[in-house]
Amino acid sequence: MSEQKPVEQDLNELLKVRRTKLADLQENGKDPFQVTKYDVTHHSTVIKEQFEDLDGKTVRVAGRIMSKRIMGKASFCNIQDLPGNIQSYVARDSIGEESYADFKKYDVGDIIGIEGEVFKTKTGEISIHASSVILLSKSLQILPEKFHGLTNTDIRYRQRYTDLIMNADVKETFVKRSKIISAIRRYLDGQGFMEVETPMLVTNAGGAAARPFESHYNALDEDVKLRISLELYLKRLIVGGMERVYEIGRVFRNEGLDTRHNPEFTLMELYQAFTDYNGMMDLTENMFRYVAQEVNGTTLVPYAEEMIDLGKSFERITMIDAVKKYTGVDFDTVADTEEAKKIADEKGVHYEARHVKGDILNLFFEEFVEEHLIQPTFVMDHPVEISPLTKRKPEKPEYVERFELFIYGREMCNAYSELNDPIDQRQRFEEQEKLFDQGDDEANHTDEDFLNALEIGMPPTGGIGYGIDRLVMLLTNSPAIRDVLLFPTMKSLDK
């Protein structure tokens, strides 16, 4: 610990110096926090890209000082703005003696505005010859670069603002995230979909197998839950005649944290009347291809050690065929739950007493198949037991018209031919209630208002839910969901 004390003392002294500088500025009527605006004419990258047109012309830029070199009567500094950074040449004879004296006291991390002419240095670096410099905000902390960079992932996630300053690739990830969501909206709007908003506080958190967060609404003295899905309200809109709807919004699931899960995340669901899950497959394939091309300029996506090809037709395979391919077990020939459990015992697949044949098929898929699905693959026709809101296959009623898209072994979306039979739906809810009573706290509960909507009549409908964060992970080559969430959930430092 003795080696740390000098560093801590030096840091404390530096922090004191910054506060002293601020106090001196304020005493001399130069309080930077009194500055209310600065008219920026150009960003750094625009100046560099349009140098031939801007050479010799006056521009105004603003940003954070990332480095300084003081050389007597003239100095250089590098300032960082949203898209990049640019060098400025600051000379006493150009900005005045008093302003230059002030500039020399500015610190790395301070935010300044610079006005001056665009030029190119002898070494060929595009720069700004400052004619005026103004301090817009005083930084009272030390940027991590002073102490070997910001590499501690825990600090990066807790202090994303610092992470964005110090790591350009992090900023680029979140700029790209915004572009991805914009591209999704453009695609769906072009397909005639309407963006809507539905409640986050609900009395019945349905539409997915997940444990909700619970709260209490004081004004009505009622318990409420945070939504785990967007499904049941969007289907109500289909009943109401809004034929193509989508919503992009936060949902909340009371579950653990890992590289693919955060308790609050961004989900997009869309519903289209008069189509089925085949229509949803076509839409998904086309949309993924469109977004990749728009955002990355190519449908070839590097992820980890793989090259994902979104340009090729996505593979389509049933869950039964996928399990048969990777385990040799053909569940079409498995007679009943008893035989399924016997095979599970032989293969070392753990199951619960309440599980039936369809559940065990899904357990086999998760255990033996998912990790192999690297290139885009639609896995279709799930067992009815794990699909309480999905239309049965007419020719095979123990299975449903459902698919999940897998890329790099990860589920990217989940889609159905939506169940629109209110009698069947009530029976499915009743089965879910039984599962809840048997200890499945992720089971759905009966939603009487939703059943009432189905009784009014819902047309044949295709629906789908996309994990936006996982799509962003894919298109930005990010290994963990925390890398694509600006402010991921973190354990309190007080605990």
TrEMBL record:
Its main location: cytoplasm. This is Lysine--tRNA ligase. One of its GO terms (cellular component) is cytosol. InterPro entries: Aa-tRNA-synt_II, aa-tRNA-synth_II, aa-tRNA-synth_II/BPL/LPL, Lys-tRNA-ligase_II, Lys-tRNA-ligase_II_N, Lys-tRNA-synth_II_C, NA-bd_OB-fold, NA-bd_OB_tRNA. It is an enzyme of class 6 (ligase). Homodimer. Pfam families: tRNA-synt_2, tRNA_anti-codon. GO terms for molecular function: ATP binding; catalytic activity, acting on a protein; lysine-tRNA ligase activity; magnesium ion binding; transferase activity; tRNA binding. Its cofactor is Mg(2+). Keywords: Aminoacyl-tRNA synthetase, ATP-binding, Cytoplasm, Ligase, Magnesium, Metal-binding, Nucleotide-binding, Protein biosynthesis. The keyword Glycoprotein does not apply. It comes from the Bacteria. Mg(2+) 2 binds at residue 411.
